[in-house]
Amino acid sequence: MKYTEDDLREELKTKEYEYGFYTDIESDTLPIGLSEDVVRAISLKKEEPQWMTDWRVESFRAWQEMIEPEWANVNYVKPDFQAISYYSAPNTKPKLDSLDEVDPELLETFKKLGISLDEQKMLSGVAMDVVIDSVSVATTFKKTLNEKGIIFCSMSDAIKEHPELVKKHLGTVVPQKDNFYAALNSAVFSDGSFCYIPKGVRCPMELSTYFRINQANTGQFERTLVIADEGSYVSYLEGCTAPSRDENQLHAAVVELIAMDDAEIKYSTVQNWFPGNKEGKGGVYNFVTKRGICEKNAKISWTQVETGSAVTWKYPSCILKGDNSVGEFYSIAVTNNHQQADTGTKMIHLGKNTKSTIISKGISAGKSQNSYRGLVQINSRADNARNFSQCDSLLMGNDCGAHTFPYIEVKNKTAIIEHEATTSKIGEDQIFYCNQRGIDTEKAIALIVNGFSKEVLNKLPMEFAIEAQKLLEISLEGSVG
Amino acid sequence: MLKINNLHASVEDKAILRGINLEVKAGEVHAIMGPNGSGKSTLASVIAGKDEYEMTEGEILLENENINELAPEERAHKGIFLSFQYPIEIPGVSVTNFIKTAINETRKANGLPDMPANEMLKMIREKSEMLEIDRKFLSRSLNEGFSGGEKKRNEIFQLAMLEPKLAILDETDSGLDIDALRIVANGVNKLRSKDNAVIVITHYQRLLDHIVPDFVHVLYEGRIVKSGGKELAHELEEKGYDWIKEEVNA
Fold it and tell me: What number is the ipTM of this complex?
């Protein structure tokens, strides 16, 4: 039948969350509320050493003095921090040698998500450190990694087994008091991933972690630390899906990357937290602090595909401290229905001959608001710094918004900064053109969106790119046709 | 092939087509000429099923099947092709990827499997040679940064690849220099057969020197007011449209 822009709008509105299910696994949950005692209890439950407990308490005290930021271009009801439970671990014991020992219900959940561990193991050679709620329940490929001296484990294990590394680096890129949510995370982080690549080692596989929020009312506070020692290389993948829930769920993660001299870290994220229903009810608040530091000749590359969450507040950033270091940020952010995203990056040029590239693609549909916010800062000692930024927005329908807030601060005359921006709209004419060639509207939208996002999709590792493409289609066109 | 009976169509309640009757048989080439605003492009869009036009009366039959209610892509699957006057751009989607999608979606709709890659490549090579298209052109984003001539040539390339039953060329000559016009016209001529038909919409005679029509129709104020052979086009070129308007208004 005939198809108008109104129909398109209508259909985009009615897209419901695909992975809206909830797994009933017994959990060991702390009572709701937050106090210094709760922080100590978390540390105790996790059997942490005293220095870690002290670090958490220090963070908590700082957090108490801080005010929730309001500068982002998003509107939401602020979370009630006393109504959240800060610790929830599946009761299944985490020490597992094979998949047979994993809770069958958990395996079922993975199946629904299309993430079969078996498949992952056999087909893609991806080592998985699966985080469901807060504790790692399955780890694979540990042996291969061990042989290379690579450490890839949960943050909890790292605190116990590699305290010297954690103690030395934790909080060095994102300090405890960096911002309101980073401070909160530092106080109550439940678990996360830790990765260390020794000098000169090239990690032979993509390291991958899937996060899920599973327990009702459980805030998720992941803490990730990736350290690439001199001359090493690692590609790290992170993917998220979350079950459909009515209450708003808070997700405040911190990711710290350290690329030492001549090292390279590639960090890719596909994020699909529950975005809320089409009336804008429910959905995850995603307030994340991600930052990396580059020493001499080092390179950090962030690639993200953001399709989920009700509210996103996220700026994966690079501190280009060492001379000749390189920072990259490639992003696709999709918002639909009532989603709001305020995302972008910060490129802080400190060293000489530092280079940064920013490619941001925002896609807005429904009644959503999609903002790019970026800072390019060239400091006085950063001779010959270069930046190229490109921010493109694609709009679908007439009720959504795209916004760009680029900040540029230059304190060195030798800098070269380029900024390009475009805004376009999927129009009836584009759809009709495709229709006339025999391509139906659903396929046409997928084609146009994929074309728009291509530069970023190309930066993802192959298996992730396919998943990301699927997600884009799910997020935008599911019920069209 | 195509039969149009008493077609009325309007846009935003303004009547544009006011009783079109036209029959195009397989193997024929029909030219539709007429002054600006006479409804030529509207006719092309209505046949292709563009939604912003409302058909208020009449019927369109393709091979004796009424297609009034069919969506644009369903009409495309049945073999209607429209070469656009203003082809749109799709950044990031290569010409090759686009045409591959179009062919396979059409095949799927007709119960056929995807075209094997080697067959597709062979066909792309043949058709691009026929239209003197540089291979580099095929990996560029669809119509993005194309010159007017490149856009039109790309339309005819798609026509060649999709092998439709009925091709409607809407002002394909506009924006073409004389060499490009010759290449495009040669391409269309090579694609002509006893099984397909072509409707050429144009202001000017010059395209019709290359694609010689069997019939020429003059559209004026939403109706076909005069039909004839190819010599009618020459007459229009010489005398303009005023005498037609006078005849109609007399």
Answer: 0.95
Q: Does A440 fall in a domain?
A: no
Contact B27, B74 (CB under 8 A): no
Residues paired with residue A313 on neighbouring β-strands, in sequence order = A287, A342
Q: In Å, how far is A438's CA from the nearest CA of chain B?
A: 4
Is A118 a member of any domain? Answer: yes
CA–CA distance, A263 with A230 (Å, rounded to integer): 5
Taking the model in full, what pTM does it have? 0.80
Give the CATH number, domain containing residue B185: 3.40.50.300
In whole angstroms, what is the distance from residue A43 CA to residue A191 CA? 11
pLDDT confidence of residue A102: 54
Beta carbons of B51 and A448 less than 8 Å apart: no
* B12 at A interface, C-beta within 8 A: no
Q: Is residue A249, in this structure, part of any structural domain at all?
A: yes
Cβ neighbours around A43 below 10 Å, total = 22
Q: Tell me the count of A-B CB pairs closer than 8 A.
A: 86
Please state whether beta strands A326-335 and B90-94 pair in parallel, antiparallel, or not at all (unpaired): unpaired
A56-88 tens-digit pLDDT: 999 999 999 998 888 888 888 888 888 877 776
Residues of A engaging B, defined by a Cβ cutoff of 8 Å: 1-4, 424, 428-430, 432-441, 443, 447-448, 450-455
Q: For residue A367, give the nearest of A325, A414, A334, A335 by alpha carbon.
A: A335
Q: How far apart are CA A284 and CA A19, in angstroms?
A: 14
Query: How many structural domains compose chain B?
Result: 1
Q: Is the minimum CB–CB distance between B149 and chain A shorter than 8 Å?
A: no
Q: Domain count of chain A? A: 1
Q: For residue B37, what are the domain limits?
A: 2-249
Question: Do the Cβ atoms of A281 and A244 come closer than 8 Å?
Answer: no
Percentage of residues in chain B with pLDDT exceeding 70? Answer: 100
Q: Is residue A73 exposed (0-12), middle (13-18) or buried (19+ Cβ within 10 Å)?
A: middle
The 10s digit of each residue's pLDDT in A416-457 is: 999 999 998 888 889 999 999 999 998 898 899 889 998 898
What would the pLDDT profile of A380-418 be if each residue is shown by its tens digit? 999 999 999 999 999 988 888 999 999 999 999 999 999
B73 in reach of chain A (CB within 8 A):
yes
